[in-house]
Amino acid sequence: KVAAAKAYERGNQAEDVHSTYMLAVSYENGCGFEKNLTTAFTLYGKAAEKEYAGASDAAKVIALPAQYWDDAMVKKDAIAQYKLGCCYSRGNCGVDKDDSQAFKLFRMSADQGNEDALYVVALCYRDGIGTSKNEEEQKKALFAAAKKSHVASLATIGDLYRDGNLVNRDFTMSLEYFNKAIEGGLEAAKSSAAQINKIGLYWKAANDGDAEAQFNLGVCYRDGIQISANDDAATLWFEKSAAQGNHEAEYAFAEMLSRKQPADEATDKKIVGLLQKAVAAGEKELRAGRVAA
Asked: Quick one: which of 81, 102, 202, 215 could link to 89 by a disulfide (CB 3.0–4.6 Å)?
């Protein structure tokens, strides 16, 4: 490839139009030379002036990315880097889809602080598009974009705090980020904030040790109310509430333990003990009610 490209370069210098065209192809595709769409566009234009077949069309196809390329790669303009990255990511603007090249450009733009690029870089690290998956880099890019009030990043961080993904689950923080996204004009964040509002009250009280709130939070996790269903989280909060003597939680905790398979003797004993405590408490309350009557 290098030898052929050098031969095309010599031919172009000798004003051989075929060599000029092929040299443009080499620069466009990075064959034998570092990719340079601006140079490719210029060479296609030179070949087109000599009416070389296909040169004019080739120049038209890469005209826009060639413009971005000069701004992005030569002038190091962050916006042009982001726009050119979008071209490669989607496979439009006259270039083929190239996730690796797209990520490289997004990363260059993000390193200059472009908030849109920071958000896309976070998604690339999350999904392994154009680069390997990296949760630490994903988190770093996402929070950097959020600091610049990038609304999609703010809402995404709200999701992370709600689900306990990359960060410790914290509904108060989740609501804070959703509200910031709403303030930034992201209407879609309103429904997420509304869902979190009630669960956030349970969360705060539950973490403060309120047995009733712990039970209610367990119900939300068990039944998927205002939050994604999560049996492990439900079991945890039912256990905390039951430990404080909440009899509804004792039943619920026993039920969650009974779902776990395979069962073992220790778990079976625990289930029986919980149910006996709950039943005894229920009978005691019933007797107290009869005496009062």
From this structure: 102
Could you give the 3-state DSSP secondary structure of residue 210? coil
CB-CB contact of 238 with 252 (8 Å):
yes
* Residue (of 91, 138, 92) closest to 118 by Cα position: 138
Q: Which burial class, exposed, middle or buried, applies to 223 when counting CB atoms under 10 A from its CB (0-12, 13-18, 19+)? A: exposed
* Per-residue pLDDT reduced to its tens digit, 22-71: 999 999 888 998 889 889 999 999 999 999 999 999 988 888 888 888 88
- Mapping DSSP to helix (H, G, I), strand (E, B) and coil, where does residue 15 land? coil
Q: Which positions of the chain have pLDDT values less than 70?
A: 261-263, 281-293
What does the pLDDT read at residue 261? 65
Q: Determine the pLDDT at residue 292.
A: 38
The contacts of residue 111 (CB under 8 Å, 6+ apart) are none
DSSP three-state, residue 160: helix
Structure tokens at 290: 């009869």
DSSP letter string over 232-251? HHHHHHHHHHHHTT-HHHHH
